[in-house]
Amino acid sequence: MITTEDGSTYTRKLPLGCEQCIQGEKLVFFVGGICQLPANCSWYCPISEEKKGKPTKYVNERPFQAWEDLWDEIDKTGAKGLSITGGDPLYSEELQNFVLELISSTKKRLGASFHIHLYTNGQNFSPKLAEALASAGLDEIRFHPSIDDFNVFSIARAQKLCFGAEVPAIPTEENERYLEKLLVTLEETEGSFLNLNELEMTPPNAGELKERGFQIKEDSLAAVGGSAEFARQFITNHLKSRVSLHFCPAAVKDSTQLRQRYFHRANKVKRPYEEVTPEGLLVKGVVRGPYEHLLELRSRLIEEGEVPPEMLFLPEGSNTLEGPAFLITEKEILRIIKKSKLEAGIIETLPLDTRDVCEYSPL
Q: What residue spans in the chain does CATH classification 3.20.20.70 cover?
């Protein structure tokens, strides 16, 4: 059993999809928040109210409206793979056709080595659909089936798909019995992996979880107490299984993966004057005030301070001049800013096209 620095625990070998996720190299394609609301999992579904039950698609954080949104996001993040999730990506025939086109188009554009995995509860999985997914180029399929739908593994095996299961680590005796049967079935059908995710409490599922006696553990924003211990004990009890077992803590999903993905994106999209933090945020200096005063300041810095023009960004009519943080904090520059009755500060933003502000520190 191997435990990584970030707290993940696994046996044998991590699925390639997991390796890429942890490194922030996987783009997440959310194909809509609609599913069949299975009784075995709908009560703890963590999907936000903004997305749950709605058909809106997203590539990472940005809404998907055209294929160019996908290609642009892959380019900006340097992604090496694609994760297809929902809702249930196989919920309807229309959605299935979209997913098949998504897989085949991505493989055609980026090549066979671009890894694609898909999550599904398996309720609409069939031999015909399995064959179509395999033909389109799907590399890996992850099931979260009810105990009545374990036949999905045999169907996936018949098409020689790489398959396994990914479910939350719910610390109850009932779930332990479910996992025991799930692992036995994976072994019998030659499944590759069983991923256990730390159970998380979010606004959409908090009521249901609390009603069942679950609480957020200390020093965590969302992880449910007892889930991590339960998962690690289950793995310890099954070290001899030929199926790869993997526990993924909430901190890895919510922090490590996101930070790595932001870091890759930040280095791809940063402007000449922006710096990238270890957390993947973008840092820059800003000066705010009337456009005419900012234009005068920019000209002065270029002519007298010999600052390269590309290091000072001022759109026409804007009330914000952007530049390197180190430049804005120089004493002489601050003196000029103060004398001109302008405001200055250091700003940290997400590396998204919208440049959402995380922190602003006035100078």
A: 2-268
Distance, CA of 214 to CA of 89 (rounded, Å): 29
What confidence score (pLDDT) does residue 142 get? 97
Cβ neighbours of 309 (radius 10 Å): 12
- Topology of domain 271-362 in CATH is Alpha-Beta Plaits (3.30.70)
**Residue corresponding to tokens 């890759």:** 264
For residue 115, the SS3 value is: strand
**Predicted pLDDT at 337:** 86
User: What is residue 286's predicted lDDT score, i.e. its pLDDT?
Assistant: 95
Fold classified for 2-268:
TIM Barrel (3.20.20)
Which tens digits make up the pLDDT trace of 297-336? 999 889 888 889 999 999 999 999 999 999 988 888 888 8
**Mean model confidence pLDDT for the chain:** 93
CB 31 within 8 A of CB 51: no
- Detail the DSSP E strand segments found in the chain: 2-3, 9-10, 26-30, 58-59, 62-63, 81-85, 115-120, 140-143, 162-169, 193-198, 244-248, 275-276, 282-288, 320-323, 343-349, 357-362
Burial class (CB in 10 A: 0-12, 13-18, 19+), 94: exposed
pLDDT tier at 341, thresholds 50, 70, 90: confident
As to burial, measured by CB atoms within 10 angstroms (0-12 exposed, 13-18 middle, 19+ buried), residue 2 is exposed
More confident residue, 5 or 118: 118
Contact call for residues 174 and 225 (beta carbons, < 8 A) = no
Q: How far is CA 54 from the centre of its chain?
A: 19
